[in-house]
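STRUCTURE REQUEST FORM
Protein name: ABC transporter substrate-binding protein
Source organism: Aminobacter anthyllidis
Requested output: C-alpha cells
Priority: standard
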Amino acid sequence: MSRLINIVSKVSVALVMAGVAYGTAAADDTIKIGVNEPLTGAFAASGTYIVNGAKLAADQINASGGILGKQIELVIEDNKSNPTEAAAVAEKLITSDKVPIMMGAWGSSLTLAVMPKLMQYQVPMLVETSSSSKITKQGNPYIFRISPPSWVEAKIFQPLLPSLGIKKVDFLGINNDWGRGTITDFSAMFKENGVEVGLAETMDQGAEDMGAQLSKIKASDSDTIIVTTGVEQLTLVLKQVAALGITKKIITTGGSQNPDQLIQQAGAAANNTMHMVFFAPWDAAKTPHPDQSKVFIDAWAKAGHNAAGMTESYRGYDGIFVIKTAIEKAGKAEPEAIREAFWGVDVPTLNGNVTFTKDGPEGKESGQYLAKGTLITIKDGKVVLPSS
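Status: completed
Returned output:
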C-alpha cells in the first residue's frame, strides 16, 4: 500500500512539474508589454488615443514577425486618471502580469505616482506623454521619456518669439504637475527673453467653469494667454473665452489638444488659436519620416479611428516601436537588459529619431529624448502649418 502511495505521489509531482513547465512555456510564447493609461476619468479621451496608437504598432510588429521571433502582447490597464490607481496598476502589471517593461502613464501626476514602483521592482517604463520636468530629474534610472518635458517645449518655443510679437503673457494651467510645471518652465524662458510674465491662474482637472480665472485674465494688460490642459477642458476654456469677448492671443502647450477635435467641439471659438503639436499629420511630406507617417496615417484611417486623434495617438505608436527596438537590442525580454538597451537605441519615429540623453542626478539618470515640435494655427475651421 505504501509503495502504491509512493508511486501515485511521484506521478502527481511529475504532473504538477509538467504543468508548471507548460505554463512557463506558454508564458514565454509572447513578450508582454504593460500599458498603463487613463481610459476613464478626466483624461480618458487622450488615454484611449494612446492605447489605439499602441495597438496599431503592436499589430504591425506582430504581422512582421514580432520581437525576437515572438509575438508581443499588450497588457492594457486603466489607471482611471487617478495617481493612486496608476500606482496600483503598475504594481499589478509587474507582480501579477510579469511584464518586463511598461508604457505610461499619460499625465505627469500619474507617472510620478508610478515611479516609486519602478524603483521598488526594478522594471523600466517608457513615458510617452507626461511633461513635468520632475519626472527625469528625481534620480530614477528606470524612466525613459519620449515626450518633451516642459523645459524642452519652452526651448522649442523660444525661437518663435520674434515672429509672435509677445510682450506680456498670462497663464491658465491645469492644477497638477503638468500645468504647474509648464507655468514654471515657460515663465523662466519668457523672462530670459524679455517677455513680461503676468498672472498664473490654475484650474482643477474636473472644473467646467473657468469664468473667474478668465475674468481676471481679461482685465489684465497681457496680450497672450498660455493655456495648458487636456482637450475636453480646453474646449470649455475656448468657448468661455469667446463668451467673455476675450481677444488676446491664445497658445496651448503640451501637444494634447488635438486641433481637429477642437475644431469639431469648439467650432468658431477655436479660430485664431495656436497649438504646439509634436506630430503634424496634415502634411505627411513635412514630417521627419514621411513614408513612416503615411503608414501610420493609413492604418489609423483603416481602423476607423477619428482623424483628430492622430496628434495624440502617435505617442503610443512611437512608444511601442521604441520598446521593440530596446528589447531587440537587449536580446531578451528581461527588465534590466531592456533598461540598459534603452541607452543605445536610435529609432526612427513619427516625431524624429529617438535617442536618449541623461537627465537627473549622476549615476541615477533617467533617459530623455529631445523631441521636435510645430506650432500650428486654426484659421476658418482649418489647421494651418507654419510654412503654409
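Reviewer notes: The chain is about 45% helix and 20% strand. Residues 2-27 form the longest helix (26 residues).
Form closed.
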